[in-house]
Amino acid sequence: METTEPVLLIAGCGDVGSRLGERLAAAGWRVHGLRRQVAALPPSILPLRGDLEAAQCPADWPPGRIDYLVYSAAASRHDEAGYRAAYVEGLRHVLDWLAQHGQRPRRLLFVSSTGVYGQQAGEWVDERSPSEPSGFSGRVLLEAERLALGSGLPASVVRLAGIYGPGREWLLGQVRRGAGIDPQPPLYGNRIHRDDAAELLAFLLEADARGEALADCYLGVDDAPAPLHEVVAWLRGRLGVTGEGAERIGRRAGSKRCSNARARALGWAPCYPSYREGYAALLDEA
């Protein structure tokens, strides 16, 4: 007998996907997590071993209906071919596998990145702003977004900012080593705590399940974009780091301030509204 609870497939069920799956499994959803190494999945997520970059459908593909698909892949190779394999070809494979089994999800959420924006001068951007990335990663993600939105399924793109949290402590490591940063010109960055990223995805899925209308794109960011030198100065104070070594903190391309107003208007709010709350929680857990 077919189950009545919503059925979710998370394709590329890594860190954020696992948090999402745990959250919705606790709310009574049936959650399948597709990844290469299923031993890393939490026990509340049904394991589905598969390779998104392979054309062959996983042998244990779940029968019955799939109500929701979250595509949350991560590139294993950081070149253009690797990005295309993970985001474009991988999504195409999953859409093919669904079609092979006669499954038509009620909504597809494609997890993308604010890296699709190429603004350089600290401009405020939202879902309506031009997305003109300068690098291959943003261009490939835009190609994958177009595939998702043109798939024939109701679809929304969720552009997440830089994710930080447990296990994502690159900046903390550099600050602890005394790495320096040039304050001028200010480099505005955007971020979201891992738990808030998962909660936003869960919020959107639950809103759709209640029959609420979703837009085709949302920005997943906290409330407070900030210059990187400000974040570094605050972390130094919390960590008691004094002085500055020869190492420099890398300045990523782009400088923009992303707005989460559309997601907030739907009723979502981050638990960690700025880097201060998020990093304070991370440091308190250490």
From TrEMBL:
Annotated Gene Ontology cellular component terms: cytoplasm
Gene Ontology MF annotations: aldehyde dehydrogenase (NAD+) activity
Pfam family, one: Epimerase
Cleaved signal peptide residues: none
Domain NAD-dependent epimerase/dehydratase: 9-207
Classification via InterPro entries: Epimerase_deHydtase, NAD(P)-bd_dom_sf, NAD(P)-dependent_oxidoreduct
Protein name stated in the entry: Nucleoside-diphosphate-sugar epimerase
Gene source species: Azotobacter chroococcum
